[in-house]
TrEMBL record:
It comes from Takifugu rubripes (Japanese pufferfish). PANTHER family: FRIZZLED, SECRETED FRIZZLED-RELATED PROTEIN 5. One of its GO terms (molecular function) is Wnt-protein binding. It comes from the Eukaryota. Signal peptide: none annotated. This is FZ domain-containing protein. Residues 14-131 form the FZ domain. One of its GO terms (biological process) is canonical Wnt signaling pathway. Coiled coil: none annotated. It is found in: Secreted. Disulfide bonds join C29-C75, C94-C118. Keywords: Developmental protein, Differentiation, Disulfide bond, Secreted, Signal, Wnt signaling pathway. GO terms for cellular component: extracellular space. Belongs to the secreted frizzled-related protein (sFRP) family.
Length: 259
């Protein structure tokens, strides 16, 4: 049995609820198609100021564009439209946003909050807000495929990185080949599983590095370890015709990093 949530009992407008203009400093819910909200909201915030403060923590997630309906979902809770009754998000909307955004939150060490449990919302019907699109985009960190400018620059980038690896990837999936060249502060097995998990979640990164190579290929990927996060800083298409990468590869083990 699930514990009661602050949402329980707020489905119908209470006599104490009031309509307020959405504050101009509530960045989460600007230009959403309506300009007034009912308070207390569906998360139990009693004032617009409290809703503004609590909603600000969700802005970084929206910046990752984890789901095109994430803003609609969150604003239906933080700033519910001012009608005769509260209109909640549909369960399917919550599930769609959660499936796409929860892995991105996990990249940064945050679980999907219990207060946003999807089973508390109603099944799709006319009196709830349903999902508009089913084309989520998820990204923990953008990365761009680059040309290696010189073998020295590539070696220096390798020196500055915590990890480096060859990874097979196509436009839609990661391949089975993963060769670890450097694993930094993590053990070899840890970096392997963390890179695979991170890149599987990072649809934007995989899409960016394979955009011009839809059939896939082998990519040299380098990056840093920042707590629980893996951040890709360099990505190169690996092929033997690239003289800079080939020259750098011959010098990996012998090269003396300046630091």
């Amino acid at each position: 049995m699930h514990p009661p949530t602050i949402l329980h009992g707020l489905w119908e407008a209470r006599s104490s609820s009031r309509c307020f203009a959405i504050p101009p400093n509530m960045a989460l819910c600007q230009n959403i198609g309506y300009d007034t909200m009912r308070m207390p909201n569906l998360l139990g915030h009693e004032s617009p100021a409290e809703a503004v403060q609590q909603s600000a923590s969700w802005l970084p997630l929206l910046a990752r564009e984890c789901h095109p309906d994430a803003r609609i979902f969150l604003c239906s809770l933080f700033a519910p439209i001012c009608l005769e009754r509260f209109i909640s998000p549909c369960r399917s909307l919550c599930e769609s946003v959660r499936e796409s955004c929860a892995p991105i939150m996990s990249c940064y060490g945050y679980p999907w909050p219990e207060i946003l449990r999807c089973d508390q919302y109603p099944s799709d019907h006319l009196m709830c807000i349903s999902s508009i699109t089913n084309t989520p985009q998820a990204s923990c960190q953008d990365c761009v495929l680059e040309e290696a400018s010189s073998s020295k620059d590539t070696l220096e980038a390798f020196c500055r990185s915590d990890f480096g690896e060859y990874q097979q990837a196509s436009r839609y999936s990661l391949g089975s080949k993963l060769v670890i060249l450097k694993h930094g502060p993590l053990l070899g097995g840890q970096i392997r599983s963390r890179i695979e998990l991170w890149l599987e979640r990072d649809a934007s990164c995989v899409r960016n590095i394979t955009r011009q190579h839809p059939r896939g290929g082998t990519f040299l990927v380098m990056g840093t370890v920042q707590g629980e996060r893996l951040v890709v800083t360099k990505a190169h298409l690996w092929h033997k015709r690239d003289k800079n990468l080939t020259a750098a590869a011959r010098k990996w083990k012998q090269y003396r990093c300046r630091n």
